[in-house]
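Box S1 | Example of a co-folding query
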Amino acid sequence: MSLTYTIILTRVISMKSLKNHLSLIIALFTVLASVQIYVAVDRTIAAYETRLKDDYSVIVVANKGFIPAEFKSMSSMIERSEPISTTQVLERLKGEMSQKNLDLLRLTLPKFYRIYLNRYPSPKEINNLQHLLQRNSSIERVEGFAQTHDTVYKLMLLFKNVVQIFSIAIAAVTSLLILKEMRLWQFQHAERMSIMALFGAPVWLRSAVLFRLAIVDAIIATFILCLVFFVIDYYGFLVAQLKEIGISVQLFNFVSDALRSLAIALGVSIALTFMIVIFPNEED
Amino acid sequence: MDKVIIAQNLSLSYKEFETIISKANFSIDAGSFVFITGASGSGKSTLLKAFYGAIEPKQGQLSVGGIKMNRISTSKLNFLRRHIGIVFQDYKLIKEWTIEKNVMLPLIISGYTGDVGGAQVQKLLGHVKLIHQAGKYPPELSGGEQQRVAMARALAHNPILILADEPTGNLDEYSASVIWSLLEGANAQLKTTVVVVTHHIPEGLNVPYLHYHIDAGNINEIA
Ligand SMILES: Nc1ncnc2c1ncn2[C@@H]1O[C@H](COP(=O)(O)OP(=O)(O)OP(=O)(O)O)[C@@H](O)[C@H]1O
Ligand SMILES: [Mg+2]
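Box S1 (continued) | Returned holo structure for magnesium ion
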């Protein structure tokens, strides 16, 4: 009779503690996931930026020849420049014009340059650059294509900001949830901790069980995060979608991202455990 | 002779206008064996609580093991408690731990968890006749068995002072005699100071002892 009762009691206790574990693991996982989503979005945008940057160039029309160093000295944003060859156009006119006129045209034809930047500029930066270049008297015209500035990119930046705000909100709310959860643990272990105190156990030893739980759950939460991203990677639907818009990006790095997540999970859970150990029960 | 406990004008109480022990003056020599008796509710457990720092002196001075108990710091108190072995009236065993680990507790706290600690625990479990229960949990044991576990735990770290609150309260005559001989042994062989609260002082004890009686807040030595 007493044995059955004890077995049932132990079951109930362990089920309860499993539930407690779950809620901490889920809370930590949520924090990790939101951080990782932010990182992945940031990475995606960076990849998209590189693509945009590679595709983007400013066209300059000048009445004299420029060497790349001259352009480079005009703005730190300028990465490189290349002349646009006019021979193709002239070739096409060969049949329709006399060689003499053609030679004349070649002499009077302005020089065309394509200028590549070291990052994808904002519309404002394009305008500034345009004005800067036009200040040079040898430059006749600058085309920055500011009006066709990428709207997808703008949406992505907006999305990044939204994700950032959400991550911060999620981190704040889940931290509070974790604190509540740990208070519960502390309460559950209060008797054991007070008995240990009667035999002279210092605070850290009394609370060792809480730290152990915090560390174990942080490791489990990180492991689940890796698992989730492994599944996403394995089925590849997100990556495929991104490929469609010309972005190839690693959503989760199983070394550096996993390590960062583990550090965050351990940091959060250990810091919060410290908090409840140092400030016992200010709530009730 | 060294004094382990010195009380001067010691008053103890839980609430403001109440006195459980009033202006007591007494001292306990190192290595002595002391019985404390008194009616239920007279303040025996309260006096022990003051000895292990669970309540502070309301008035007067109390020192235990040379440490002043008035406004004692947490670290000093922890240090003192690591040298005291307590048998609580309500046992205070850790439910989630096995009997073996419960007895191990003072050794865990002092950092002796290796083979030496393990051997010590086995020896004590043998003394209190609980070897076969070592793997069980406190709720699975009878009251008397739990009391014996509490006794073994109090002796585990060879404390300089043992405070036992009715350690034979739930035991039959034979089990009680086992407890008394353990306390006698610690006192005779290890020079441990033993303070026991009890309703019945056992007969035929092999060590000399003192007897204090608490009555109406006063502590009187009975010759
Ligand atoms: N935590 C407490 N808060 C307030 N009053 C208490 C507390 N503990 C004990 N008391 C009171 O202090 C008095 C002495 O209690 P104590 O436990 O010391 O008695 P005791 O001599 O050990 O009795 P018993 O033989 O029944 O164990 C009692 O009147 C009790 O009601
Ligand atoms: Mg009592």
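The CA atoms of residues 10 and 16 of chain A lie 10 Å apart. Residues B 14, 20, 38, 40-46, 89 surround adenosine-5'-triphosphate (ligand 1) (CB under 6 Å).
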